[in-house]
């Protein structure tokens, strides 16, 4: 016989969202409240809300699997996509839930589940409150699915492999390999990424200034990832053409002041801005969070860099650039490969628990980090940038120029742990901090300084 909802033995445990607590009580379900632990191997339910012209479908599958929408189509005969933000907000917004719990009775929509969900003795479910989970006996949970349909459609994550060391010309699996090669071939042709809309407007305004100086254009370029990358690339090409053994370009300021001059940069930037096509809805949706994360990461990278003892300190200008461009491959996909980007976006929405690199490699045979790193090489950018972009998700990376890749990993995770940026939160390895000669306290202090300046950053991000 089912017991009443929640055990009252541990008064220190957080309360569940009221709507979840009431539902469990009404159903007579015994559930234990547990804290989320990153290294837990206990089976966990992942919930995704999908829709098509037929209607809405709640899909439940194991947390250690990837939901492939093409496989789901083969099972259901429906072309399902992630439910729109308005539909999801309609279900979880009024209850102030942070995530959709895997409880079919809560949504009231048809449900499909992967039959491998029910293989263990107990299951963990999102409670709708951050880092708080429900633990339910599998047989009890089976009873909650008595009106749902069962099938087998998830892809176990253990089958997915990410090989960043694969030489460019090695054969890959058919579909992904063909897609990856096509992406690389397209990038070998000239690629120009227009500045952000607000950057383009400021460029036009600067052109009218009678007393324009290098600092004005430098400050502007340093807040636009696409423009910053192209300016440094132009400088490298110009420097290399004049000097067979050129001095290295170490920052946007280097590129503008030592090589190009602000008049040339302004004119080239105007050229990129002119006849800029209207941004697609997909681009409009991603640009603000993309830009925000780039600025925060770059600013924190520079702060972390300056906290490293001077003898081991990397170049602050390159550290800033690495942070600004750390997600550049994602921007390339959005601008240059819209169909691939739409496919990827749909899968990332329904698989927030899966590292984006695994999703990208599964669908495209190449990741945003590989795209960004390859473009850095193709544009003759500093080698440090290509290394940083390629290995930013590998805290164990220790080879040439590892400090820049390690700093991106550290900065991104520090920010995510404070709610800035997307992706799973991870414990920062002590070994990485020791290699950087940074204490955890120093790293947190650098983050605190960035967040203390958050008002100024927000004003920058909000400028029209």
Sheet with the most strands? 5 strands, mixed
> How much helicity do the residues have?
40-55%
Number of domains: 3
Assign the CATH class of the largest domain. Mainly Alpha
Average residue pLDDT: 85
The CA-CA distance between the termini, in Å, is 61 Å
InterPro entries: HDOD, RNase_Y/CdgJ, UCP036888_HDGYP-like, YbaK/aa-tRNA-synt-asso_dom_sf, YbaK/aa-tRNA-synth-assoc-dom
Pfam family, one: HDOD
Protein name: HDOD domain-containing protein
Which terms summarize this structure?
single chain; 464 residues; alpha+beta; YbaK protein; Hypothetical protein af1432; 3 domains; five-stranded mixed beta sheet; three-stranded antiparallel beta sheet; 10 strands; 10% strand; globular; disordered N terminus
What does this structure look like?
Residues 193-395 form the HDOD domain. It holds the Pfam family tRNA_edit. This is HDOD domain-containing protein. InterPro entries: HDOD (IPR013976), RNase_Y/CdgJ (IPR052340), UCP036888_HDGYP-like (IPR014627), YbaK/aa-tRNA-synt-asso_dom_sf (IPR036754), YbaK/aa-tRNA-synth-assoc-dom (IPR007214). It is a single chain. By secondary structure, the chain is of the alpha+beta class. It has three domains: 18-159, YbaK/aminoacyl-tRNA synthetase-associated domain (YbaK protein, Alpha-Beta Complex), CATH 3.90.960; 197-273, no CATH class; 281-462, Hypothetical protein af1432. The chain contains 22 helices and ten strands. The protein has helices spanning 18-27, 69-76, 85-92, 104-107, 138-144, 174-188, 197-207, 214-221, 225-242, 252-260, 262-273, 281-307, 316-324, 328-336, 338-350, 356-364, 368-378, 383-390, 402-416, 430-436, 440-452, 454-462; strands spanning 32-35, 45-51, 56-62, 65-67, 81-82, 111-114, 122-129, 132-137, 149-151, 154-156. The strands form three sheets. A five-stranded mixed beta sheet has the order 5-2-3-6-9, covered by helices on one side. Helix 8 (214-221) crosses helix 10 (252-260) and helix 18 (383-390) packs across helix 19. Residues 1-11 and 167-174 have low confidence and may be disordered.
